[in-house]
Amino acid sequence: MAFPVDRPRRLRDSAVLRDLLRETRVVPEDLVYPIFIVPGRGVKSPIGSLAGQCHLSPDSAARLAKSFRDEGGRALILFGIPDRKDETGSPGADPEGPVQLAVREIKSAAPELLVATDVCLCEYTSHGHCGVLSPDGRVLNDPTLELLAAQALSHAEAGADLVAPSDMMDGRVQAIRGALDGAGHERIPIMSYSVKYASAFYGPFREAAQSTPRSGDRKGYQMDPANIREAAREAELDLAEGADIVMVKPAGPYLDVLREVRLLTKRPLAAYQVSGEFAMLRAAGDAGLLDYKAAALESLLGIKRAGADLILTYLAPEFLRWRA
Ligand code: PBG
C-alpha cells in the first residue's frame, strides 16, 4: 500500500484535540505530601538531603499544612523524628510524641486536610531497624507486631485519618486492624506499604529521618528489586488482612510492578515516589541537564498512567504552584 491505512497523527494535529483526548491527568487530589516532624516549637530547618523540605515542629507543621491547603493540597503523610530512641522503638507510641502532637495541631488548623501517618519503628529504634532485634541481631517479626499496633493506635487516638505501616513485617495489617477495631477505630483505613523494595533510592530519606540502620541492611524484610511475583504475593496477603489501600514503593523504577498490582485488585493503589527519585530530578534540574518542571510532571504522569490512584511525592507543593 502506498499510504498508511491509519493516521494516529490526525488526532495530534490541534492543541484542543490533544487536550480533549488526553488519557491521563494528574490532579491535586492524587497527591500526598510527606513531611518530617521533630519535637519542639518554632522549628523549621531545611533538610540537606532533600531540597526544599524541612524538619518541622508540630506548630510549624500546622502552619505549613494551612498554606498547603490554601494552595489546593489535600493530603499529608507524617514521619516522626523523636528526640529519644530505644531498643523497641517505644517513643513511637508516645501520645506526646512529635507525630501525635502534629496530628492534633494540623487537624485543628486545617481540618479539611487528610492526615496520614507513617507507622514504623525505624525512626524510633536506637539500632535503626524496622523491628525489634534478637540477641544475634535479626529482626523479629512477631514481637514487632504489637509495637506497630500500639504506634498505629496512638496515631489514631491523636486524630490521624489514615495509618500507613511501612515496616514490611508479615501480619502487621491484621495486627493493626485488630488494635484499631478493638479501640473503636474501625473507621480508620489502613494504607499498607505492601510492596516495598530494599531500594537504594531511600538514601536521602534516611538522612532526613535519621533512620539508617546502625548495622546490616533491610534486605531481610524489604523485597528484592528483582522480584515481581513476590509483589503479587505481598499485595494479596495485605488485601486479605484487610488493607484498604495497597502501595508500591519506590514508584518510577517499579512501574511494571505498579501495573501488576493494579490488575490484581479493585482496591485503591498508591505509589511512593521516594526521596531518591525526587533528589535525582532536582539534581539534574539544578545541573541544567533537563527541564525540572517538565521532567517532574512527566514522572508523576508515568506513575498515574501505570495505575496509581494516589502518589506520595515531595513534589506536591511545587505541583500546586505549577498549576496555579
Ligand atoms: C521506613 C520508610 C522509609 C521510607 C519511608 N518509610 C525508608 C526505609 O525503608 O529505609 C523511604 C521514603 C523515601 O525514600 O522517600 N519507615
Hetero groups bound? Answer: ligand PBG
The first-level CATH class is given as Alpha Beta
- Going by CATH, the homologous superfamily would be Aldolase class I
Largest sheet: 10 strands, mixed
Low-confidence stretches: none
Count structural domains: 1
| CATH architecture grouping | Alpha-Beta Barrel
* Count of separate DSSP helical elements: 11
Q: Helix fraction?
A: 25-40%
CA distance, first residue to last residue? 49 Å
CATH topology type: TIM Barrel
Regarding quaternary structure, what we see is: single chain
**Radius of gyration over all CA atoms, rounded:** 20 Å
Shape: globular
The overall pLDDT average reads 96
Class from helix and strand fractions:
alpha/beta
The number of E-state strands comes to 12
Secondary-structure element series:
HEEEHEHEEEHEHEHHEHEHHEH
Beta percentage is 15-25%
